[in-house]
Please model this.
Amino acid sequence: MTTGAGTPPRETQPTDPSGPEPKTPVRDRSGGKQLTRAQRDARAGRLLLSPTLLVVLVVVVVPIVWSILLAFQDLRLIDLRRRGLFGEFSLENIADVFTSSGFWEGLRTTLLFSVVGTIGSIGIGLAAALALRKPFRGRTFVRASMLLPYVAPVVAVAFVWQTMLSPQFGIVNHVGREWLGWDDPIAFLSQRSADVSLFGLQVSVPVALLTVMAFEAWRYFPFAFLFLTARLQAVPGELEEAATVDGATPTQRFRHVLLPQLLPVIALLSVLRFIFTFNEFDDIFLLTGGAAGTEVVSVRVYNLLTDRGDIGGAAAQALVLALVLVVFLIVYFKFFAKRVEEV
Amino acid sequence: MTQETLVEPTGSSTAPAPRRWNRDLVETRVLGVLRWVVIVVLVLATVFPFYYMVVLSLRSLDEVLQRPGLLWPAELDFTTYVEVLASAASGGQGFLVFLRNSAVIALLTVAVTLVVAIPGSYAISRLHFRGRRQVSALFLAVYLFPAILLAVPLFVFFSAIGLRGSIVGLLVVYVAQTVPISIYMLRNYFETVPVSLEEAAAMDGATRRQIILKVSLPLAMPAVVSNALYVFMIAWNEFLFALLFLAEDRERWTVSLGLSQLAGSIEIPTTVLMAGSVLLTIPIVIIFFFTERLLVEGLTAGAEKG
Model:
């Protein structure tokens, strides 16, 4: 799940409807015991929250713990019925993860994909937010259409991209050959690398990886656009007016007035987008299936699980992926804690 | 950014006499043009793929192969939609069944998520109890964790107990994935409901349950609706868990899963599947355009504060 509100929950003090006299003992109807209002509230709170907690514990926390156990077992899908859920424990899977070349390759791809995807989506989002800042006729429509890639079903948009980029009848290759003078169609999604001469230098370009990065930036720039637009609207107009009066040019106003205001949001977006891109599975799986040098770790985990039925290996890879992510989460919480102190 | 944009040719009535060609003027002019370039490019980049999707769904494959550059249907060909919707038994692709499956799963997810998340978010926003902060942190962590890490044990577990392939299993997973975000969206809203209203109800002798149902919930209705739509969109669009749980039984495929499973096949013309992706996308686009403001407000609540 890669959608949603990025700002972390605000920690506000809960407000108690019975605020003024919280200690007044009230007769509890169920038990007849003397309970304070605060105690009854606490009890009600736990009760109201328990269904949520139950679902999250059963479907999220328990599986994560179990996945740690699985990572240390040599378990295959075909053995499942016979052997039950718990087998002998060994470090073999973890060792395999670190010694297999595929994992390091996958981790490198994942990092590259995440960094470029994050920068791309935030960069485009920023350009869009700035361009749509001043009102113009049709802005409402333009703004809504900016969000289309983000809300549309990923399977549908990935399929359209595949079709548009198709070497046989895709519109991109058609335009490329008719108008841009390409000699041969480019297999955007299945070609690992291509040599491009740039100022007389032969450079090898990872074609498929760049294509999925472009898709990622395209699909998620609306997320950055939304948050940056919301922040831009909150920038007080006087700041820029004052700068204009002082003779600041538009780029100077952006650099010295707007950018400092936007930086906290950009920093937050960078962390969030990085995490989500790092976890990304759908986009790459649907576009290339992990072929042609685009196999990020999560796609690798899926392939291990379903193609080879190697449960232990898949769990171990997923676990290492999550651990790498935890490092980023710690950075995130540190960053967030700092923000709260500032406010 | 711009003092004199191209849209306002008559903007300044007190047009200044010959200006000096200074940096400010150059930047203003250049950025004024650049702004429109950015807007046009972005609109093309975001809208064109969807336009292309619709056009291709209305053409026959032969015609597309002959004239790949044609950007409008030569003649409207709705047979693709007939073929994609018809059941597999009658020679179609069975998307009608997939649409039904998707709708059932998405609606059930919305219902269960709301039943679970409304009390939960109320508790987090209004009631003080130990462990409240930790619960919030847990939900945030759930939201940020890689789905693939959950996929392995859930796949194994549901395989072992025979729930894989059942809609109930998928439903539970969807609810767990959408509850944290729902709690976040709803609790922000509950916090804006004035405490004094609840106090007044409490003075009149209303119980906690009555306060929630009669006072807070009706006031939070906009947030509940936008959250319900958002959850619907997540469940409708979801792919990974549908793939893991339902892939084996074609009768249970969702639209997303069906489209992805059939996309690799050479026998099915791309234009027929394009009709399938139009059917998959349309409900979301309709919901989105009718409720854009509501959704955006719900999502970016708190973003202004950075």
Notes: Residues 84-305 of chain B form a domain with the MetI-like fold fold (CATH 1.10.3720.10). The first helix of chain B runs from residue 23 to 57. Chain B touches chain A through 127 residues (CB under 8 Å). The two ends of chain B are 22 Å apart (CA to CA).
